[in-house]
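Hi V.,

Quick status before I head out on leave. The structure for the redesign project is tokenized and pasted below; the design run finished overnight.
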């Protein structure tokens, strides 16, 4: 088995990132919901006002997984945190430590950046991921309910309707 390495994503790796995004969407039975284009990802990660970041995990020369994250803020702690938007490891390479390595990389980054929290969400049916996260010491925040406003509801809210 080749050694795992994790590196910050580069602009020329946007097609690789899009491949992982599509593969994640297929895994989550949501392929039809992917609207992002390579241009969108390019702008989000590497544009002038980019606040989102990505890392890619390699096994040897082969990209096997990725993570997309951004910094958030807690008024309770008065410090930043890291929010993991997406993490995906190619099914062919699961079981070799890539997922754990990606989470460790981001946990170390959180500590290096004086963050107090490292958070993410997982679909309630994704029992393999839930078991994996809990094996690392993560715990569900069951007292919180996530909310989202998008599409027409977002437009109505913005217009005060």
């Amino acid at each position: 088995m080749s050694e795992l390495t994790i590196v910050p994503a580069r602009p020329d790796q946007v097609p690789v990132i899009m491949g992982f995004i599509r593969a994640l969407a297929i895994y989550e039975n949501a392929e039809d919901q992917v609207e992002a284009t390579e241009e969108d990802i390019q702008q989000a990660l590497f544009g002038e006002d980019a606040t989102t970041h990505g890392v890619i995990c390699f096994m040897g020369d082969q990209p096997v997984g990725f993570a997309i994250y951004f910094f958030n803020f807690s008024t309770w702690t008065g410090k930043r945190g890291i929010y993991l938007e997406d993490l995906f490891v190619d099914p062919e390479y699961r079981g070799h430590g890539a997922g754990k390595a990606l989470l460790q990389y981001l946990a170390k980054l959180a500590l290096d950046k004086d963050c107090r929290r490292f958070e993410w969400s997982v679909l309630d049916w994704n029992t393999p991921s839930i078991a994996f996260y809990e094996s690392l010491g993560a715990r569900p925040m069951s007292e919180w309910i996530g909310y989202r406003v998008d599409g027409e509801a977002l437009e109505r809210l913005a217009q005060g309707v």
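Above is the designed sequence. The mean pLDDT is 96.

G. will cover questions while I'm gone.

Best,
W.
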